[in-house]
Amino acid sequence: MTLTIDGVHAGYGGGTVLHGVDLVVPEGAALAVLGMNGAGKTTLVHTIAGLVKARSGSIRLGDAELATELAGRPAHRIARAGVALVPQGRRVFASLTVAEHLALSRRKGDWTVPRILELLPRLGERLTHKGNQLSGGEAQMLAIARALLTQPRLLLLDEPCEGLAVDLAARVRGVVAELTRTGLTVLLVEQQPEHARAVTDRLVHLANGVLSANDVLSATADDGATADDGATAAVLPQGQPQ
Amino acid sequence: MSILRRLTPLGFPALIVVLLPMAWVLDDYATKTLTSILVLGLLAASVALLTGVAGLPTLGQTAPYLVGAYTAATLVRHDVSIGVVQLLAAAAAGALFSLVTAPLVVYARGVVVLMITLALGELTMTVAGRWKSVTHGTDGLLAFAAPAPLPGLVTLDTDRATYLYVLTVVAVLVGVMLLVLRSPAGALLRAARDGEARMRASGHPVAGYLTVAYVAAGGLAGAAGSLLVTVERYVSPGAGGFDISALVLLAVVIGGATSLVGALLGAGLVVATRDWIASRDWFGGSMAGHAPLVLGGLFILCVYLLPRGLLGKRTAHE
Lengths: 242, 318
What we know:
heterodimer, A: 6-stranded mixed beta sheet, B: ABC transporter involved in vitamin B12 uptake, BtuC, 15 helices
């Protein structure tokens, strides 16, 4: 399903973090939002997921309105509408086993526990381990599994490779890249361009709560990446700097 | 304490097996005290369910406890002499009270919950003291007639019979709660406690789960209120005062906030300290009359030496 964000302002307390963000992620596409610490990446995905209320603007997934300036849906309803978040820092439950994590997240749909364990076989060996007994890579796999079992139509990934060793980060990137080929709409936020480029060639840059594509496109062009102007126009729809 | 924690799954049946023969071992005074411990322990279990398992720290479970106690006492005064009927009615009244007050509690967190529940407890006690046509005000309600547990069974005329009835009820109710908490329902509550935003982002209506937990805890507290009337044959607003709320929270902290069995043990330790150690001539009589002082010392020791209590488990916030 296509994610459409129109003029979203959002923040915490008296401070505004996102300043009129416009973004479109077409159905089945993957888009990466790059930015430094404090750029507003996590606020962006939390606003889409309903954990932060949008102060103005609208967020739509397909035809479903997730948030407007008048009222936002509660986070659990947004999740049930098909939005799944893999949060920064994994956030697995320390007191629950892997099996309990999977059981709590499971809903009817294409993503079943056997399919998940086929994609992430390491979890199958850790079913009786609690969240606080997993390595960083295993916890990240579990966070992804938990999100997939909710049968998402849009997957939000908040720096999934953060804090992982090089080989584990490569494994996580591989899993995310595999997911993008299943037809799932994916929005990835990242600090590291190389992690993002391993997943998608659609990249935008977020700085101080404002989206642009300039920096990243020049970086990808330098590297001979495949980002094209048409794709950029699709993700920055309303005259944002390109 | 790790050995105690490992034994927790077996601990509850073992605890009941140990407690059962006490009816024939202890004298009347000790049996009565142990019965009071079980009643307070059931109330403490309801506090542990909210505070430790669901993450809603409460000082207000004395409210459904009082509601349950007055319901049971009123039934006794209307010649309803079947213990289980009194128990079910009191549990339903406690649960209903919690259902009505749930919107005030389940959307708040942390210290705010503590304050709201404290206010609910104090308001309920005040209403019990003022609504004289129903509660007889601060004079309290006498409920002399001893109930029969079930139709056809003998009435609970002796301390031993009352103890066995209370032990049975506590064993069944706490046992059922332990089974529920070992099911996915328990995992949902623990997950909501440890990562509420994560649960909401996974599509779980956390406020709904907390409402269910709050109502269930209200039912447990109401049932404890019914047992109080069975034991004391009397209820007054003082049965739900702040001192009782604090005592029960102390029991939960000492026993381990995440453990219902720990709450029972904590209640035992607290009441034993208050009623036995601090009121007898032990230690040359130096402790007599100083129960609050002894309890305060016990609490400080526990916080420093056993921050998770006797049976508590680590939560994600530690």
